[in-house]
Amino acid sequence: MTTAQSGTGEGADAGVAANTRTIEASVVTDFSDRMSYGGYLDLPTLLSAQRPISRPEHHDELLFIIQHQTTELWLKLVLHELETARDLLRADELGQALKCIARVKHIQKTLTEQWSVLATLTPAEYAQFRGVLGNASGFQSYQYRAVEFVLGNKNAKMLQIFESDAAATALLRHALESPSLYDEFLRLLARAGYPIPASVLERDVTLAWTFTPELVPVFAQIYGDTAEHWSAYETCEELVDLEDNFQLWRFRHLKTVERIIGSKTGTGGSSGAPFLKRALELTFFPELYAVRTEIPG
């Protein structure tokens, strides 16, 4: 190694000495009357929101709290992007809607990867503070339910879980009573001249989407000539990506739970892993999977 490479000779960066970087004179250091990074992000509030309640405080409870708090932050952004995408589809702004969906797909990958962090929590470690959770459970995440609703997997009975939280109930009711992302895509297709059945366009949007075989020929037309129907085809594949990613998240959730608590019941009263396993049977866009059987070849 030369002296320049080692950072000790004349060729070394003049701004670094003794492995210490010099602060440039132009760097702002006085924030007495300026917006700072911490002020913009409201870091005092954010970083004071992690309050372990185990006594004595268990080392791993902070991991558990941060895992779920960061998930909720990402879900807030997912919901923001999906609602915007839905509104853009309603306005026939397909390109902009796809940009929002693309962002959601990246967030989904981050959320799925996060399970690997929680999976470092061993059964013995979790058992030492699980009791302080009481009946608190991720099942009670109203943002997660809102995301499911926006994607079309609606369940009005879920609202009873949030009756004690007026804001959560209002958010979920709005998501329940609004057309889903899929509803708006199908309406867009109808406006573009595709033969979407009237029963689909006039359906009760408060109900969970269920498989509608009459739509499969419509998608078969799109997949049969992708060049002719490129915009519709691209959107179909983006929606399949969304569902694929969502199912991977659900599966990773299930396997993490099995790894940490085995077959124990959930803190919220569910059967635990068996309940999560049944979620893998739920679907958002079943016709986009069914059409694959109809494609020749």
Word description of this protein:
The protein has 14 helices and two strands; from the N terminus they run αββααααααααααααα. Strand 1 and strand 2 form a beta hairpin. The chain has a two-stranded antiparallel sheet. It starts with a helix and ends with a helix. It is mainly alpha-helical and 297 residues long. The chain is globular. About 2% of the residues have low confidence.
Q: Could you tell me the mean pLDDT?
A: 94
DSSP helix fraction: 55-70%
Class by alpha and beta content: mainly alpha
For the sheet with most strands, the description reads:
2 strands, antiparallel
In one word, what is the shape?
globular
Q: Which radius of gyration do the C-alpha atoms yield?
A: 25 Å
**Total beta strand runs:** 2
Distance between the termini: 60 Å
Unreliable residue runs = 6-12
Number of helices: 14
Topology pattern, helix = H, strand = E: HEEHHHHHHHHHHHHH
Share of β-strand residues: under 5%
What strand order characterises the main sheet?
Answer: 1-2
